[in-house]
Specification:
The protein has one domain: Rossmann fold (3-Layer(aba) Sandwich), CATH 3.40.50.720. Helices cover 42% and strands 14% of the residues. It contains seven helices and seven strands. A seven-stranded parallel beta sheet has the order 3-2-1-4-5-6-7, sandwiched between helices.
Length: 238
């Protein structure tokens, strides 16, 4: 029998209740990973857990958590250390669009929510979980970005989302540069145009049938999560 590519590896996925996060969680489970699923809604997490049990026969650890509450992220590392003793894979996927509007028209609370979730929450995840990744023999961290950071000229009305993702990329590449003497590899992954709720919010007239489904883009996530993957500090395109 062919061994599963993530057999026995412990993986945490944020934004795991829907879209790309949900698809990655299911794929990781099918590849033998032990899952820690983070999302705001308990009911949606339980639905994903049912799917994972049907795939792997083993349930996930469910963490109903609003990533905007940074002090709770700070507590996560200690809780996972007590239960698992390490973390092998971190997938920072949770994000929000925050609507599309002119730069000067963003209400301050919406702007701050976008930066808090898309950027600051990932910094706090690194801060909390880096010690656990260092306890893995092959820690792997990947953070989901967007093609909007590559657009020339920049897309009008996307300021909050684009700024947050560009800053996330700078954060992760800096983190990767600091990891050269460790067993951790940290990268950015751009899934491309994918049929998600956020995509529908941004492009309401778009036919989702013309886009990739979340389940169709998980191969690269598995590749970056494998202990044999050797690249670090790069932006990977699906």
């Amino acid at each position: 029998m062919t061994s599963k590519r993530l057999d026995g590896r412990i993986a945490l996925v944020t934004g795991a209740s829907r879209g790309i996060g949900r698809a990655v969680a299911r794929r990781f489970a099918s590849e033998g990973a032990r899952l820690i699923l983070v999302a705001r809604t308990s009911g949606a997490l339980e639905e994903v857990d049912d799917e994972i049990r049907s795939l792997s026969g083993e349930g996930a650890m469910l963490v109903p958590l609003d990533l905007g509450q940074g002090e709770l992220i700070d507590q996560l590392g200690a809780a996972l250390h007590e239960r698992f003793g390490r973390l092998d894979i971190l997938v920072g996927n949770a994000a929000m669009l925050g609507g599309l509007r002119p730069v000067g028209h963003y209400p301050p609370d919406i702007w701050e929510d976008v930066i808090r979730l898309n950027l600051t929450a990932n910094w706090r995840l690194i801060r909390s979980l880096d010690p656990l990744l260092r306890l893995s023999d092959a820690g792997r961290a990947m953070f989901v970005t967007s093609g909007v950071t590559e657009c020339e000229p920049h897309l009008p009305f996307w300021a909050a989302y684009t700024a947050s993702k560009a800053a996330l990329e700078a954060l992760v590449l800096t983190y990767a540069a600091e990891l050269k003497r460790t067993n951790i590899k940290a990268n950015i992954i751009d899934p491309g145009a994918t049929a998600t709720n956020m995509r529908a919010e941004a492009f309401p007239g778009e036919d989702p049938a013309t886009l990739a489904a979340p389940d169709d883009i998980t191969d690269r996530f598995v590749e970056l999560a494998e202990s044999s993957y050797s690249e670090s500090g790069i932006k990977v395109f699906v």
